[in-house]
Each structure stands twice: as C-alpha cells, then as structure tokens.
C-alpha cells in the first residue's frame, strides 16, 4: 500500500547530483531557506560511505569493526542471494556491492579470550609466527548468527580435510583470521569482483591497526593494503555528493 499518485510525486529516476530545482515555498517559509536553495538528487548511506572512502575503480574497501563490511566497485555484477548490489553513486556506468559479516572484531576478541591471550600484541605475535596457509588447517568461526551466509557454529578442518574439535593456540589464531578474510574474497568474487583488476585494498576500522592481520589480508587478495584513518565516512561522502551537485550546476550554468 502507498499514497495515491506516489509515482507522479516521486518523479523520474535521475543520476546522483542532478539539479531537481529550487526548494519549495513551504520549506522556505517554515525553515527560512533561501529562495535560491537548490535540491540535488542524493544517495543512500552505504553508497555515501563508498564516496567518503574515495574508492575508485579497481578498489575494494574492508571495514574491520564490530561487524566487518566490504565495499566493492563493480563493473559487471553477478547478483546473488548473499550480499547487495547498488547503483554506483560516482559512475552511472558502474555498480557497488556491499557485503556484511556479523562475526567481526567481537568474534576475534572472543577467540582471543578463549585461547587465554592477554593482549592484542600477543595475538599479533602469535599470528605472525605461523606460516601463510596455516599448514593446510582451516577454520570457520560464527560465534553469532552470521549474515553472509546465514549460519552459526565453529568448524575446524585439518590439512587432510577432516573435521577436528580443536587446534593449538597459534593454529587457532591464524585459522580464525584466514577463514574470515578468505570468506570476504570468495563472496566478493561471487558477486562479480574481478580480483585480477584489483588495484589495492583499503582497510578501515579498529582492527586495521593490527599489522599481522593486514599482512594476511594482503596475502589472501595478493594486493597492497592501505590504511584509511577516517570516521563518519557517510557524512563525508554526503558532503562530497552535495559539493559535486553544486559544482555540476555551476559548470552547466557557465557552459550555457
């Protein structure tokens, strides 16, 4: 159910940054807006984050927080039941994808505590002391009901592919991190991300200060990793979009 004539009220679809005209008399009278205030077609919070992180074609951004989030610039998306595909707010010829993983830093901290590791420095040292690939041992850790995919539980497999109940501490730590980051690459590629065209990985969030974790991230994607120390990327991206719309309007006015 929706309001009568909603389609006509909403109008046609337009590109982000399009000038929709001046603000209404009602808004001017009630809130004191200037009669010259322009209304610019905007975007959503997640696409605004992509703008705020200054992601370019060939980039992938991974926010390592309470939950982990992956932002992907896509040219040829392959929509699946897991993950989301949006219009790209920067390029109308491209798309953006979003992957959300419930088991992020909280799960990393739970495993750290279960292993009796006192500090994140010790955690980092233990992970750095084990080889890439973890001697064939793989772990999947869904302490909370996961979003991508919908599943809960912890699963460990040794180098022979047999399920085991536990690993030693060093193996457990690397299995946790490699498992989480491999899942991000697999799901990104399932959505159409071309790893061969990837230029760089942008890491943000609290866990992006863990250098051993970032090394695993670089190993798994086989790409350089850059840390972006940015907060409120949604607000920053929104400001960028407003500025883009205003400059586009000025350029249009000057040209004509």
- By DSSP, the count of extended strands is 11
Q: Could you name the ranges where pLDDT drops below 50 across 5 or more consecutive residues?
A: none
Order of helices and strands: HEHEHEEEEHHEEEHEHEH
What is the mean pLDDT? 91
- Write down the Rg: 22 Å
**What is the number of helices?**
8
Distance between the termini: 43 Å
**What's the main sheet like?**
6 strands, mixed
Q: Looking across the biggest beta sheet, what order are the strands in? A: 5-6-4-3-10-11
Helix content: 25-40%
Strand content: 15-25%
User: Structural class of the secondary elements?
Assistant: alpha+beta
Shape: elongated
Produce a short descriptive summary.
The protein is 37% helix and 20% strand. It has 256 residues and is of the alpha+beta class.
Give the helices and strands, then pairings:
Layout: H1 6-10, E1 19-22, H2 25-31, E2 38-40, H3 45-52, E3 59-64, E4 68-74, E5 84-87, E6 95-101, H4 105-114, H5 120-128, E7 138-142, E8 153-157, E9 163-164, H6 169-190, E10 200-204, H7 211-221, E11 225-227, H8 233-255
Parallel strand pairs: 3-10, 10-11
Antiparallel strand pairs: 1-2, 3-4, 4-6, 5-6, 7-8, 8-9
Explain what this protein looks like in three dimensions.
The protein is of the alpha+beta class and 256 residues long. Helices cover 37% and strands 20% of the residues. The chain has eight helices and eleven strands. The strands form three sheets. The chain has a six-stranded mixed β-sheet, sandwiched between helices. It has a three-stranded antiparallel β-sheet with strand order 7-8-9. Strands 1-2 form a two-stranded antiparallel ribbon. Helix 7 links the parallel strand 10 and strand 11. Helix 3 packs across helix 8, helix 5 packs across helix 6 and helix 6 crosses helix 7. The radius of gyration is 22 Å and the shape is elongated. The model has no long low-confidence stretch (mean pLDDT 91).
């Amino acid at each position: 159910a929706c309001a009568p004539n909603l389609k006509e009220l909403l109008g046609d679809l337009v590109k982000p940054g399009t000038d929709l005209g001046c603000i209404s008399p009602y808004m001017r009278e009630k809130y004191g807006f200037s009669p010259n205030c322009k209304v610019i077609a905007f975007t959503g919070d997640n696409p605004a984050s992509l703008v705020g992180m200054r992601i370019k074609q060939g980039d992938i951004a991974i926010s390592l927080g309470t939950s982990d989030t992956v932002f992907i610039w896509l040219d040829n998306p392959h929509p699946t039941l897991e993950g989301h595909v949006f219009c790209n707010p920067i390029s109308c010829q491209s798309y953006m994808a979003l992957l959300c993983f419930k088991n992020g830093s909280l799960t990393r901290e739970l495993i750290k505590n279960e292993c009796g590791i006192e500090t994140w420095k010790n955690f980092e040292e233990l992970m750095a002391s084990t080889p890439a690939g973890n001697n064939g041992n793989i772990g999947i850790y869904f302490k909370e009901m996961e979003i991508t995919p919908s599943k809960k539980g912890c699963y460990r497999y040794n180098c022979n592919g047999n399920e085991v109940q536990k690993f030693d501490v060093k193996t457990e730590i690397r299995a946790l991190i490699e498992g989480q980051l491999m899942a991000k690459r697999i799901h990104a590629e399932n959505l159409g991300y071309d790893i061969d065209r990837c230029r760089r990985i942008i890491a943000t969030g609290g866990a992006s200060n863990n250098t051993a974790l970032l090394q695993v991230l670089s190993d798994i994607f086989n790409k350089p990793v850059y840390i972006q120390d940015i907060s409120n990327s949604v607000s920053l991206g929104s400001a960028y979009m407003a500025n883009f719309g205003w400059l586009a309007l000025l350029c249009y006015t000057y040209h004509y």
